Amino acid sequence: MRQYELIFIVHPELDETAVGEILDRVKNWITESGNEVSKVDQWGKRRLAYPIRKQKEGHYFFFNINMSPQFSAQLERNLRLLEPIMRYLLVTKE
Description:
Number of helices: 2
Radius of gyration: 13 Å
Largest sheet: 4 strands, antiparallel
CATH class: Alpha Beta
Distance between the termini: 13 Å
Order of helices and strands: EHEEHE
Low-confidence stretches: none
Structural class: alpha+beta
Strand content: over 45%
Oligomer: single chain
CATH architecture: 2-Layer Sandwich
CATH superfamily: Ribosomal protein S6/Translation elongation factor EF1B
CATH topology: Alpha-Beta Plaits
Shape: globular
Mean pLDDT: 94
């Protein structure tokens, strides 16, 4: 198991329940595969450095994850296919 950091940005026009469902869905993907989410930070709605899909703001989320390296490709695929997620970044923590 390696430690990873995941940051993703969710579309700003979603209400709190929709954002909560996306957050729960990402947590479930990680935990159902036998991996562990050690920390979740909601950074709130922030201004983007540049427009993404004609949006200037987004809901930011930060995860600390302990997971196997084989699962990272599957997690990135799922994040890429989830339409409300505008951008994500998954990196190993040293």
